[in-house]
């Protein structure tokens, strides 16, 4: 876990770049203009999220997960590490150590939706817009058995 006072400008830049690379492979519904508009929100979110967990290999972040209360707010993995169990390991850590029960995912991100379903999450609700009122539907998922 990276405490807020240890989130240097350099680290935030590295994680924002990781986010950008990940989004290019997983969020094909976003235009380059969308990505540019969202990027500052990501950097700000990384600096302020309650719990920030990194997966580091060769002294470099390869994935990160942000948690607030009992919800995963962000989970992004470097393209070269996608599909290799890192997301599963981070999600298991979140559920075990942080009692995570919720996650929101872009409906158009089919691989993420499939991943969370495989990991036992179910759709609770759907919003037609994202948190910034952009036209990217959000699925609200839970791993709770009753909701």
Write the layout of secondary structure elements.
Layout: H1 9-26, H2 32-48, E1 51-57, E2 60-68, E3 71-77, H3 86-98, E4 102-106, H4 110-118, E5 122-127, E6 138-142
Parallel strand pairs: 3-4
Antiparallel strand pairs: 1-2, 2-3, 4-6, 5-6
Protein name: N-acetyltransferase domain-containing protein
InterPro entries: Acyl_CoA_acyltransferase (IPR016181), GNAT_dom (IPR000182)
Keywords: Acyltransferase, Transferase
Task: Write a structural description.
- This protein has a six-stranded mixed β-sheet, sandwiched between helices.
- The chain is globular, with a radius of gyration of 15 Å.
- The longest helix has 18 residues, at 9-26.
- It is an alpha+beta fold and 147 residues long.
- The chain is built from four helices and six strands; from the N terminus they run ααβββαβαββ.
- The protein has a single domain, classed as Gcn5-related N-acetyltransferase (GNAT) (Aminopeptidase).
- The mean pLDDT is 96.
Shape: globular
Q: Roughly how many Å apart are the termini?
A: 29 Å
- Portion of residues in beta strands equals 25-35%
Task: Give the C-alpha Rg.
Answer: 15 Å
**Topology order in helix (H) and strand (E) letters:** HHEEEHEHEE
SS summary, helix count = 4
Number of strands: 6
* Average pLDDT rating: 96
| CATH H level, superfamily name | Gcn5-related N-acetyltransferase (GNAT)
CATH class: Alpha Beta
Structure, briefly:
One of its GO terms (molecular function) is acyltransferase activity, transferring groups other than amino-acyl groups. Residues 1-143 form the N-acetyltransferase domain. The protein is α+β, with helices and mostly antiparallel strands and 147 residues long.
């Amino acid at each position: 876990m990276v405490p807020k006072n240890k989130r240097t400008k350099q680290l935030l830049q590295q994680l924002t770049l990781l986010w950008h690379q990940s989004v290019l492979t997983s969020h094909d519904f976003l235009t380059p203009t969308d990505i540019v508009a969202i990027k500052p929100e990501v950097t700000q979110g990384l600096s302020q999220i309650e719990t920030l967990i990194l997966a580091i290999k060769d002294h470099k972040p390869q994935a990160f997960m942000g948690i607030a209360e009992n919800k995963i707010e962000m989970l992004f993995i470097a393209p070269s590490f996608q599909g290799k169990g890192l997301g599963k390991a981070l999600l298991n850590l979140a559920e075990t150590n942080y009692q995570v029960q919720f996650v929101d995912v872009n409906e158009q991100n089919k691989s993420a939706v499939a991943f969370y379903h495989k990991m036992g999450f179910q759709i609770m609700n759907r919003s037609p817009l994202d948190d910034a009122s952009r036209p990217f539907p959000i699925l609200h998922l839970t791993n709770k058995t009753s909701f």
